Amino acid sequence: MTTSFRPDPDTATSVKTAIANLGDGPLVLISEGGSAPYTLPPHVAAIVREILHNLAKGRPVQLEPTSDEMTPTDAAAYLNVSRPYVVKLLDEGRIPFRMVGTHHRIATADLVTYKRITRARQEQAMEEMVREAEEMGLYETDGPPPAKETYRGKSVSGR
Question: Confidence class of residue 159 from pLDDT cuts 50, 70 and 90?
Fold first, then answer.
């Protein structure tokens, strides 16, 4: 079962307050029913903190139980790309896999690593493009924003 949550601004603000009060120590759960407090294991606490930090930034969060391995179809859905593209990545050796008969099986941990590395490269490339645009004077912050271009009466920007 997948659980998704998109925070509204009030939730993001309240989560920011919660994070400020948590500190860096262990996370302890206390129920309203009066049962004994329970300290979360460090790896679970790290997941909870990551969820809270994303919510505080207003980012949607999705929790989904995963298996140890994925098929190329599952991997494509996870990476938000086509299945043939995943197979190409496997054939090029960019993502490790194993064969079960004639079927590819990809370790979920390898996909998570690939996605994290790819995202970091994309963010680095974007920062480089912005830096170059600023150096060239193409990214000016003074003055009003440029007028939206239209094509047959429809806005082209913000596709």
Answer: very low
